Amino acid sequence: MLRFLSLLRSPFVVDLRALALLRAAVAAVVLLDLGIRSTDLEAFYSNMGVLPLSVLYERSWNPYVFSLHTSSGLWQVQAVLFLLAAVAAIALFLGYKTRLVTFISWLLLVSLQNRNPLILQGGDDLLRMLLFWGFFLPWGRVYSLDARKRPAPTQLSYFSAATVAYIVQICLVYWCTALLKSSPEWSRDGTALYYALSLDQVLMPGGRLIYPYPELLRFLTLASYRMELFLPLVLFIPFAVPWWRLLFVFVLYGFHLGISLTLFVGLFFIINMASVLGLLPTSAMDWLEKHIVPRAQQLGPRVAARFAPLHPRLASLRQAVQLRVETSWSLSDGLRGWLRSLREGLVVGLLLYICWWNFDSIIKPEWTMKAPMRWIGFLVRIDQHWGMFAPSVFKDDGWYILDGTTKDGKHVDLNRQGGPLTYAKPASVVSLFRNDRWRKYSENYLFVDNAYMRPYYCNYLLRIWHENPANPPLQQLDVIYMKEVSQPDYKVPAPTRELLCGCAP
Q1: Where does the chain cross the membrane (predicted)?
Q2: Is 138 a member of any domain?
Q3: Is residue 388 part of a domain?
Q4: What is the secondary structure of 283-309 as a DSSP string?
C-alpha cells in the first residue's frame, strides 16, 4: 500500500532548488513587466491617458475585483505603486521575507492588471497564477536570504497539495488552449499557423522565413495542436519521472522559442518558459549546482554563503539553530500540524475550483459554473482563460493610420512620426507598436463592443502631439484602420479604409 501511494505521489514531488529557481525567474519576469509598463504610466494608468478612471468604472469594471491603482488618476501615484512592486519583486528574487513579499507582489500585480484590462493577454493570467500558487510553495527554503536563518533541509525533495496545484496549473494552460481550438484549421486542415503568420500585426522575421512553405506550416500546426493536447500527460507518468520532466521542459522551451521568433507575443513566451523551471528534476539541479555554484563561490565567500544552501561552513551553525528551533517549537507542533492540514485543504479546494473554471466552457451546459460561484475567482483573480488563437485564428488584419490635418491643410501620419500621409502598407506593421501592450490595445480598439474607448485614444494622441512645440498644430485627427482580411492560399485582398474615430482640439 505504501509503495502504491509513493508511486501516486511521485509525479508531484519537486526539488526545493527548482522551486527556488522558479521563484527567481518569476520575480525577474515581474521586474521586466514593470519596466515595460513603466514607459506608459500616463498612457495606460492615469486619467490623462486612454482609460480614465471614470471610464474604467463605467465600462470595464467588475464589482468583485479590487485595485490599489484606482486610488488616484495621477501618474505620480502610479509611479510610487510601481516602485513598491519593484522593491517587492527584488526582495522575492533574493528570497527575503519570501512569503510576505510573494503576497505583496501578487497583490500589486493583481491591482495593476485590474487597472487596465484592455492591454492584458494570456501570459498575464499565468504570471498572476504563478505568484498565487507560489504563496503556498516553499520556494524560499533554499537559495534565499531567508535560508540563512533556518537549518538546512533534511531532504531536497518536497511534496504537498501546492506542488500538485502547480503542476496541474501548467497542464491546464496547454490542455485548455488545445480544447478551445475547435476550428478545423487546427485539428484537420492545418492552416492555423498560415493564418497566424498572415497577420502582419504579429509577424516577426522568423515567421517571414517559413511563411512561404505551406506544407511546413501545416506540419507545425498539427504538431503544435497535438503537443498542447498530449504532452502534459507525461507529467502524470509515475515512473522515470526525471526523464519525462526533462522531455516536457525541453519540448516547451523549443516550442516557445519558436513562437518568439515567429510571432510578436510580448512576454508571453518568457512567462511560459519561466513557469516550468520548478519542474526540473534533482539530476538537473545537481548538474546546475555543480557548474553554477562553484562560479558563484569565485565571486566571494559572502555570495557563496548566501546562495549555496548546503555549504559545509554553515553546517555547525545550522545544527545549533535547528536544535534551538526544535526545542522552542516542540509545544506548538500540534497547532502547526493543524494549520498545515488547513492549508492543504484550502489548496485542494482552490485547485478543484480552478479546474471547474477552466473546463466551464467545454463541459456540458448543466455542469457549468453558475454566476453566484464566480465572485471568488474574480476577487482573488484565479479566473483564467487560455484561448490563444482559439477557437480559430483572428482574420481581420491591417494597420493603423493616424491622419492629422494641419491648419494649413496638410496631412501627416502621427504613426510615422509626423511624416507625409501615405496609404501604402508599411514594410513592417509590427514595428508601429511601441510594445506588446500597445499592440493588444490596438487589437481591442477594433472591436465594436469597445467603441467607447476610441475617442479617449484619439484625444490622448492629440494632446501628446501638441505638447511638442516642434510639431505643427492640428485641427483634426482621424484614426483610420486599413483593413486587410486574411485569405486562403496566399491571396492578398485590397485593403479597405475604415474611419474608426475623429477628434479635434
Answers
A1: 12-32, 73-93, 156-180, 231-253, 259-280
A2: yes
A3: no
A4: HHHHHHHHHHHHHHHHT-HHHHHHH-T
Number of separate domains in the chain = 2
Q: Is the dihedral of CA 277, 283, 286, 290 positive or negative?
A: negative
421 and 464 housed in the same domain: yes
Residue 168 lies in a domain: yes
Cα–Cα distance, 441 to 439 (Å, whole number): 5
Q: Are residues 182 and 274 in the same domain?
A: yes
3-class DSSP string for 366-428:
HHCCCHHHCHHHHHCCCCCCCCCCCCCCCCEEEEEEEEEEECCCCEEEHHHCCEECCCCCCCC
Q: Which residues contact 15 (CB under 8 A, 6 or more apart)?
A: 156, 157, 158, 280, 281, 282, 285
Tell me if 70 is assigned to some domain.
yes
Which of 379, 406, 437 finishes a domain? 379
pLDDT 10s digits, 371-418: 788 999 999 999 999 988 989 998 999 999 999 999 999 999 999 989
368, HSE (Cβ side, Cα atoms, 13 Å):
8
Strand locations in 370-486, DSSP E? Answer: 396-406, 411-413, 419-420, 474-485
Tell me the C-alpha distance between 418 and 405, whole Å. 11
Q: Residue 392 is placed in which grid cell? A: 480559430
Q: Give kind and range of the element (H or E) at residue 498.
A: strand 496-503
Identity of the residue numbered 113: Q
Decide if 481 contacts 500 (C-beta within 8 A): yes
The neighbour count for residue 408, using CB atoms within 10 Å, is 8
Q: By C-alpha distance, which of 75, 134, 85 is closest to 110? A: 85
Amino acid identity for residue 297 in this structure: Q
Q: Are 143 and 309 in contact (CB under 8 A)?
A: yes
State whether 6 and 88 are in the same domain.
yes
Site of grid cell 485582398: 493
Distance of alpha carbon 68 from alpha carbon 410, whole angstroms: 44
Residues 343, 211: one domain? yes
Q: Which three cell numbers stand for residue 184?
A: 478545423
Q: Tell me the residue range of the domain where 287 lies.
A: 2-379
Burial 326-335 (b: 16+ CB within 10 A, else e): eeeeeeeeee
My answer on whether 206 and 317 are in the same domain is yes
Pair (165, 311) in one structural domain: yes
Same domain, 264 and 401: no
Q: Which residues of the chain have pLDDT under 70?
A: 1-2, 293-333, 361, 364-366
With CA atoms as reference, report the closest residue to 165 among 140, 129, 139, 138: 129
* 152 and 290 part of one domain: yes
